[in-house]
Amino acid sequence: MNKFIALAVLLFAILPLKAQVFDPSMAGGGGQFENPVNWEASFEKENDSIYIIKIKAELEGNWHLYSQKEVEMDIAPIPTQFTFNVEEEEYELIGETLEPEVEPVYDEVFEANITYFEEEAEFTQKIKVVNPEDTQVVVEVYYSVCDDKQCLPPETERFTLSLGSNKVTQGFTDLTIEDEDQSLAQQLDIKVQGWEGYETEKEESSYLSIFFLGFVGGLIALLTPCVFPMIPLTVSFFTKGAQTRSKGVTNAILYGFFIFLIYVLLSLPFHLLDSVNPELLNNISTNVTLNVIFFVIFIVFAFSFFGYYEITLPSSWGNKLDDKASSIGGIIGIFFMAVTLAIVSFSCTGPILGSLLGGSLSSDGGATLLSIGMGGFGLALALPFALFALFPNWLNSLPKSGGWLNSVKVVLGFIELALAFKFLSNADLVDHWGILKREVFLGIWIILGIGLTLYLFGVIRFPHDGPKQKISKARFGLGILSLLFVLYLIPGLTNTSYSNLKLLSGFPPPMFYSLYDKDTGGPMGLESYHDFEEGVKAAKEQGKPIIIDFTGWACVNCRKMEEQVWTDPEVYDILKNDYILISLYVDDKEELPEDKQFNYERPDGSIKKIKTVGDKWATFQTLNFKNNSQPFYVLLDSNFNLLNKPTGYTPKVSEYISWLENGLQKTEELAKK
Predict the structure, then answer these.
(1) What domains sit in the chain, N to C, each tagged with a CATH number?
(2) Does the predicted TM-score (pTM) go above 0.90?
């Protein structure tokens, strides 16, 4: 049993963190054009010389359009801009272009208050006209839109309003596609090979792992002083107190079922929150405030496990429910007995449930994963009551309660402290505080590991520890494992090849988030090329495949991917060592040389003028990959063979790692042909 305790405690260490990687959804791939904004223009006459121009945008779904107000920072959302042909002196603008009044929203990625519009927005501009009969007002709208997963490259919409004939024409009707335009567009077409087999590919995720991790948490809860002694007492009550053995077994099984049901029911309120605002739960892993709250909660849980105080629910709750169970009897009475167990054992199960809550809701599965994890937790608690009722002789094999139960709590306390700093690290990474760099984080874990080792060897003690006794072989063995873990962590404090610590991938901050200077000027410190041709040349020279990162300076979700997925050590190492990264910014406003500018016909037949570097890479994306959203990632070899299905916003780290590794495998297969 003691060996099992050690194994269960070690398994519990991964519970709240590894639960974060399971997601029931899959981020989108390629093969689609988004056009979520419908623009309309109109005008009305206020008097003989004053006209009001109205430009209205209707947005689909969760897409939003940014305000005209610029945010004073180097990297910010692209504001909506209006340009009028006033240089023809046929009219003059009266005041500024007006927009709807909405409250700004704080954006954690840009760290600023951002104003944007959803569903619809109407902009108005007053003009004073000299001769309405001969006046044409040409207005261009430069804009960009985003939703919760992607952004689109900036676009320009043009309207020509003929005041005399009361006519509105939309589009760049004065542009045509010449042979030179077609030639320049064709130069961007790299003839990607290997689209076959990727069009309908889709992964399915399993909830089995999160259920298993919840089950492990329930097993650990069984080994705490609040729950373990209840097993023989409760089973004996049902088997000896019933009129027949079959009745006692039925009651015990029913009791176990109600325990399982109660813990599943505890997750239902989170489903209500999820239905009101799905992003509330899905964004916990990136929400600085909530991560700090989890940090504080885990610290409180840890010192409770150390024995400095007890976290309990009001004793009156348990007493009242116990009275109800005794007075009512029957099935309802058994249900109240199960509720009583949940309440009186809260001081031990509460911290474990808190870990499960933090881990499940930090993932993109949200409340669904929590219910599955809670189901596993409840099942583990319920099984002993049913099994020992069916096989009462097994009770004799249970170890007696004693000091080892308190030792389990203290070990869990050290694990809770370690996990607390993981949540603080999440907040630190997102908000760039710089207080928990990789070496600082590992130093804290080393100190905690030393503390755990000293406790297991009996050097340090806690309030609820009994008289000193000879250290058992199991406890000594666990102490040796703790010491070996500390020795494994120590190289992580150095700036050497031994500091990688691959066995802990995903736990400490990434290697580039370090006290040592590792910045290279690329995204998240990675080396990247901003020109496709230069990147391909480097790929051929180094014999590596290519990852094209279609991104934008003002793309919120691009920053989320870089800060939340690319910061994972395993992802970072693959991008750094195994691929040539080419980051193409579709909103780069640097103008192309005049001989490289051209008119491009979109798939819907409209014409766009390719004038800037951003226009060029947006066109490059649509030509070759039939997609116009960002972030968008493509894996190619240097001969332009597609290595995997292109993907977009992919918050699930394990899925992104698998996607990258599949691309490397395909590279090896193509090299052998």
Answers:
(1) 37-174 (2.60.40.1250), 207-398 (no CATH), 421-436+438-504 (no CATH), 532-672 (3.40.30.10)
(2) no
